[in-house]
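Exercise: predict the structure of this protein bound to guanosine-5'-triphosphate.
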Amino acid sequence: MEQRNIRNFSIIAHIDHGKSTLSDKIMQITDTVSFRNHESQILDDMDVEKSHGVTVRSRTVRNLYHDRNGQTYELNLIDTPGHVDFSYEVSKSLSASDGVILLVDATKGVQAQTVANYKIAKANHLPVIPVINKVDNKNAQIDMCEQQIYDLDDSLIEKNILHISAKTGLNVDQVLESIVEEIPQPNGDIDAPLKSLIFDSIYDSYKGIIAYVRIYDGKLRANQKLKFMSNNQSFENNEIGIFTPSLKPVKELHSGDIGYIVTGIKDPKGVRVGDTITSKLEPTIHAVPGYKPVRSVVYAGIYPKNSNYDDLKMAIEKLSLNDSSLYYTEDNSDSLGQGFRCGFLGMFHLQIVRERLINDFDISVIVTNPNVNYRVILNGNEAINNIDNPAKMPNFSKINSIEEPYDEVKMKVPSSSMSKVMDLANQSRGILITMDNDSNLVELTYELPVAEIAYNFFNKLKSISHGYATFDTKFLEYKVSDIVKISIDVNYSPVDALTFIVHRNNASQLAQSIVHKLKYVMPKKLYPIPVQAYVEGRVIARVDIPPLRKNAAVSGEKKSISKKQALLRRQNINKRKISSANIILPQRIFDAILGI
Ligand SMILES: Nc1nc2c(ncn2[C@@H]2O[C@H](COP(=O)(O)OP(=O)(O)OP(=O)(O)O)[C@@H](O)[C@H]2O)c(=O)[nH]1
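Solution:
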């Protein structure tokens, strides 16, 4: 297809505003897929996506559309996730697009991810087609939504906002016409050397790594000799093709097209999303600008439970191929053995990775308590950056100060919930920077420790503002904080996987909660097990896990003193024998602690 008849676009929206439903409807109208016996939501086909009802990964599909004037267009649609934890996927999709549909749910209005994703589109200078969805719903508030869209950006006032129902198909044809009219054609040079951006990749056990590419310049042919620009490594493609949405081989792709390349490479580290693929024999000079390296927000240890380390390693490597925001490095724990330290974009991301390991790879894992990463200044002024594992925190006697990451957080909240939001921010150690009144919305800017917002802040904010608050974060800096390490000893042996880094003000209460939780979730032994929480060498909380059997030494039975003493002695010997290596830490321990 000629470039003037190609349109590459994405749909961006807040979670649940109807992107996947609209994608399905577009595929239905353009006859891309037969809907006779379709399951709903063709693009959300991962198990985790079906179970949570959300899009986790971006999908791509080529639709052929015959417009009102009888012209045929190739509309390459890239579906994007809406959850805050997957905004990195959104930036990747947008880098391959020439325009976006901004979809707003008529019953909810503009929400946090509408704003965040709109900003990404604007930063990429992409034209925006504003669309209000779910107008068939009796609770639709179309006027309110229009006003909120205009409030988002003055430049949108000139736009004609479409009112559609992705569910019934009402006015979806107008969306297709607007795509053709308002989104520019790709403007690559078909005669220049090949220049293609990898915006995604998947692992196929037979074909190896399949790279999803946007061709900027030149032509790509099947079985062509190619190379990656980041490391000059060459390969010959085994197959190239398009998304229908299943993979369909073609002989040639050219500038403006979106398609895939079967690289044949099996090593998951061999293909990097954001890299440029060019021709080996006639390479381009400049690579396509790549992506900003992703910044992990929370870190946790992942260890094999019923499988072995090598299987887990392969699974994590493959998973990271189509989830380039997953950071991982090998790690070793005294209590959990060989595993990985992983970085995630947020808690939901962590949960999805854990579920994908089970669903896609059949691997059960133990996930340790998550934390952010810290910077430590030692007494001699030497700095240790990136302490992402509490067990690696140096002894307190060597530490001069500890710094933790802070975000600048902007929240737009209805004035009615402002005081509750401010209470939440204060409890989360927030520092108020500015407060601006804008009609009945108040914009609050806070500096907040990432450790406080990483876990449940967003959900709490949503709940106290009844879903109306918008929330946007930007990394600010590392600031000195009164941070301490809580270590847990079980039966007088330290357990490295149970180490926590917290603010000193929360240490005592947290330590009490942890040891009391452990009392109920820790597997019992035949003897009592003391569990102690330490901060800076001092025990600040303790419980004794009762033994499995009746403790004869303290039972009410009438026994001679010497017999009781003999029993006590035996129990003491058992006590000494056990080391942390004998302690089994089931996942329920970490789940219970996460609950705190
Ligand atoms: N009444 C009505 N419901 C709709 C419409 N479009 C989508 N929905 C419903 O809204 C819910 C969310 O739709 P999805 O298409 O999954 O939303 P999404 O934006 O793809 O969500 P994520 O994949 O999580 O980002 C589903 O229950 C849809 O059936 C519409 O036009 N009208």
